[in-house]
Design goal:
mainly alpha; Arc Repressor Mutant, subunit A; 2 domains
Length: about 200
């Protein structure tokens, strides 16, 4: 069965967590942090999580199991995954693993337009990015190293992937910065204008 609900990284993650056990939204958010999933899905805004839950429920992929009442907390709705949700989880996961999706991160957009700045302006910006990427990679490595001994590799496979990507970006940034410093990568408004005129 093919669901009409559009897949999303957060939607898939919520469905996977509800396979684990029925949860209320706050419990989902806590488990995301406990399992370290906030590094691979955007849960910075609680409203995004609630909208995702509403969408999954409207599509019949999750359902209300019960409503909890506690004097210390507001009323909490506990959700569980449905049979349709189990099928959708598998369908989405297989699709995301097998088929690369056209994504549009902001960094390539900035790179494609950095000719609006001078090489001297670009270099310190890329140096700053390199510091951020290096720190992010080091933190991900620290978290991975701090995992309990004997933990199956599959439970940290996303960290392994992220570390590989971050190391690749570090190497690339260092190469570009070397080229900027040595003048192998340079441009001027006159150079760009001449290229544009030649192409007309």
């Amino acid at each position: 069965m093919t669901t009409t609900v559009k897949s999303s990284p957060l939607g898939l993650t919520v469905l996977v967590l509800l396979h684990h056990r029925p949860l209320h939204p706050y419990g989902i958010q806590q488990l995301l942090k406990q399992w370290g999933k906030e590094h691979v899905v955007n849960v910075g805004q609680r409203t995004g999580l609630y909208r995702t839950i509403e969408r999954l429920q409207a599509g019949g992929l999750i359902a209300v199991r019960q409503t909890e009442r506690d004097q210390q907390y507001p009323e909490r709705t506990v959700y569980e995954v449905t049979d349709e949700g189990r099928a959708a989880t598998r369908e989405w996961l297989e699709q995301m693993l097998a088929v690369p999706k056209a994504e549009f991160p902001v960094f390539p957009v900035a790179l494609s337009n950095m000719l609006m700045l001078t090489p001297d302006e670009v270099a310190p910006l890329l140096e700053r990015r390199l510091r951020h990427i290096t720190a992010q990679r080091a933190e991900t490595e620290r978290q991975t190293a701090a995992a309990p001994a004997g933990l199956p590799r599959i439970t940290l496979i996303e960290n392994e992937y992220l570390i590989t990507l971050l190391r690749a970006e570090e190497r690339w940034l260092r190469g570009v910065l070397d080229d900027l410093r040595d003048g192998r990568l340079t441009w001027t408004p006159e150079m760009l204008a001449a290229f544009q005129e030649a192409g007309e």
